[in-house]
Amino acid sequence: MLTKYFSIVGYSDSGKTFVIEKIIKHLVKKGYKVGVCKYIHHSGFGIDIPDKDTTKFYENGAKIISYVSPDANGIINIEKEGTSSTLRNIENKVDYLILEGFRNLTGVPRMAIIKEESDLKSLLDEFTIGITSHLIDLSKHNLFIKDENIPSFVEKRALPPMTSLNCQKCGYDSCKAFYKALLMEKEDRSKCVLQIRNIKLFVNKKLLLINPFVEDVFRNVISGIVETLQRPDEKINSIDINIKIE
Asked: What is the rounded average pLDDT for all residues in the chain?
């Protein structure tokens, strides 16, 4: 299954964390693997706690800081990779990826957590499919979702991110037009050729469309090579390759 995305936006103290906690609990209870990516609006080191080792390493110029513990591991990448690269590194490991605070990100289903009336103008965009508030009454708004319904709403309405291939094989003039129809539940994801592909090819970090014949060649050649190599005995479910050409 392609990773499904859902974005939660709102200003400080609007209740974003509370909503995301409920979404995570619901999805995990259903047996899904869930990832969360938070946008930090201030610049600088992501977890700059004074006098801690990670901060000292950063201050001395380390570009990648990683840790391994008995129960977890993590990587802090100081280089500015960009949002799409960071999310791609996460998505292969989870079924749902919940985004918090990416107010300028487009191309994924979005819910706005409203703190005051003016937020309706600044936070809503063409990808917004739901709003809620713990502070003001929005029950008459056509996008309002009751608090208790939000987790199941996200489970149902989350989608893989919009692409920009514009191949028109779905019958629409652009990926954006098709995606907006998906958001309104007027179309089925199966019309997108990427939904039935098992290989994603990125060149210079841009997604390229591969026709079924070339995809089969890729799969058969790479799988055949890997089968001849020394490898762990477990079943191969996926193969990731990153080729850097100078």
From this structure: 85
